[in-house]
């Protein structure tokens, strides 16, 4: 079975689910290109209809607010629609709430209410078919890059709905979640039972250690460190280096970061030039901590280098994706990024730089010198692949299943996904990925 990495889950109910199995039902509504939506007061955008408890509903937002909204606020309303051929007079009491979160899944807005929804006309007894809030959130906050609300221009609202009378019915039994991931995250930085620790001396303002990062092991090392958890200084000299200790476990490192695992006969491992924040986030990732969007924005490069250094392949590729996303390529930095990508084997970054050259060829030829650009067959391959992607139509790509063109015109992300689905190595150059994919399993 294919190992799909990107997917959207849609549940389709045939018939009405039994009340005993229903609590809050969640609907995720995505308003794409939010900045381009009409922002004049009174102008609205309505979602497609969806079904809940046998009725059709929609969510209507006013990007510039209604006539009653405070200036600059977005309004949102839940609306019940009369069923096709219905006679009206059909009311239903609904508890509902909307949530707005940032890209770190931190809830910024949580509004909850209930309403007895009718059909909005005389047939419905004059009971309103719409209810919501005139002041949900400031439009400026949604558009602000500092708030991290939009994902690629999309504004998302989470709607929760529950029929009022279901609260009186028996819900399905509570089943606790598997707590393994929680226990794993708690083990990090806990001295008890740890057999490895890293000490990082923060030597300068940019978080890069110029001294020694030690990795000691054995139970004899732990008691002496009980009072020196992360964040406590260990040097009392006037020009002291803040020292931070991270407690870890050999078994976890062996499975998830093999390069980071100490050898059996070693008690101290010198690790120079470690990015502190990158190391902290990478070690947390190994223990199951997700890296928030805000940290990716600040430390994607540091995490990428640490992950590459300690053999955390999945983290390296994820960090590279974020680094490319947050890095603006220009004629001034393109060569430096290309050299950096070549030195660190960052093939997605290299592809992005090549794509920049193809898209801005005339400007690049006019203002840039190519004398110091190192030549390699792989660079030429990347360049030709990007040109081929522009030239080959989608129809030809679809018809190239039995042709070497299928892989040679794929971008690096598609090659990595294809390799992952075939359970093959995903961290390699374009040539290596194509060669592995072309090899029979």
How much strand content do the residues show? 15-25%
Q: Structural class per helix/strand content?
A: alpha+beta
Mean of all residue-level pLDDT scores: 76
Work out the helicity level.
25-40%
Low-confidence stretches: 1-5, 121-125, 166-170, 210-214, 219-241
C-alpha termini separation: 14 Å
- Overall geometry: globular
Helix-strand pattern, N to C? EEEEEEEEHEHEEEHHHHHHHHHHHH
Question: How many individual helices?
Answer: 14
Task: Outline the biggest β-sheet.
Answer: 5 strands, antiparallel
Radius of gyration: 28 Å
Number of strands: 12
Task: Write up what this structure looks like.
The structure is a single chain. A hairpin with a 2-residue loop joins strand 3 (50-52) and strand 4 (55-62). This protein starts with 24 loop residues before the first strand and ends with a helix. It has helices at residues 139-143, 180-187, 250-256, 276-286, 293-309, 313-326, 334-344, 347-359, 361-367, 377-391, 394-398, 405-408, 412-421, 430-438; strands at residues 25-31, 45-46, 50-52, 55-62, 73-81, 92-101, 107-117, 130-138, 155-163, 196-202, 214-217, 242-248. By secondary structure, the chain is of the alpha+beta class. The strands form three sheets. Strands 2, 3, 4, 5 and 8 form a five-stranded antiparallel sheet that branches. It has 14 helices and twelve strands.
């Amino acid at each position: 079975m294919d190992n799909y990495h990107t997917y959207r889950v849609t549940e389709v109910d045939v018939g009405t689910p039994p009340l005993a199995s229903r609590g809050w039902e969640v609907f995720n509504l995505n308003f794409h290109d939010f900045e381009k939506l009409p922002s004049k007061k009174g102008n609205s955008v309505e979602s497609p209809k969806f079904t809940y408890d046998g009725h059709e509903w929609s969510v209507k937002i006013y990007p510039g607010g209604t006539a009653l909204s405070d200036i600059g606020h977005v309004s949102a309303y839940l609306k019940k629609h009369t069923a096709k051929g219905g006679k009206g007079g059909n009311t239903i009491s609904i508890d509902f709430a909307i949530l707005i979160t940032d890209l770190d899944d931190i809830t910024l807005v949580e509004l909850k209410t209930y309403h007895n929804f009718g059909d909005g006309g005389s047939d419905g007894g004059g009971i309103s078919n719409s209810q919501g809030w005139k002041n949900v959130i400031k439009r400026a906050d949604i558009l602000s890059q500092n708030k991290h609300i939009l994902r690629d221009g999309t504004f998302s609202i989470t709607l929760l709905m529950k029929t009022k009378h279901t609260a009186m019915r028996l819900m399905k039994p509570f089943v606790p979640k598997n707590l393994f991931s929680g226990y794993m995250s708690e083990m990090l930085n806990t001295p008890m039972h740890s057999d490895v620790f890293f000490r990082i001396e923060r030597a300068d303002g940019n978080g890069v250690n110029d001294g020694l990062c030690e990795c000691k092991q054995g139970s004899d090392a732990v008691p002496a460190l009980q009072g020196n958890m992360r964040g406590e200084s260990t040097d009392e000299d006037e020009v002291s280096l803040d020292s931070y200790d991270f407690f870890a476990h050999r078994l976890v490192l062996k499975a998830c970061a093999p390069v980071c695992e100490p050898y059996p006969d070693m008690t101290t491992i010198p690790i120079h030039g470690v990015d502190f924040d990158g190391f902290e986030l990478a070690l947390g990732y190994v223990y199951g901590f997700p890296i928030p969007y805000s940290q990716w924005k600040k430390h994607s490069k540091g995490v990428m280098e640490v992950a590459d250094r300690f053999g955390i392949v999945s983290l390296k590729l994820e960090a590279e994706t974020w680094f490319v996303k947050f890095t603006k390529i220009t004629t001034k930095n393109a060569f430096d990024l290309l050299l950096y990508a070549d030195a660190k084997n960052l093939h997605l970054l290299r592809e992005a730089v090549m794509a920049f050259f193809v898209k801005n060829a005339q400007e690049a030829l006019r203002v840039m010198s190519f004398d110091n650009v190192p030549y390699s067959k792989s660079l030429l391959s990347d360049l030709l692949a990007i040109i081929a992607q522009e030239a080959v139509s989608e129809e030809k790509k679809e018809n190239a299943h039995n042709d070497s063109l299928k892989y040679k015109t794929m971008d690096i992300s598609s090659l990595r996904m294809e390799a992952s689905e075939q359970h093959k190595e995903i961290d390699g150059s374009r040539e290596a990925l194509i060669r592995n994919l072309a090899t029979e399993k």
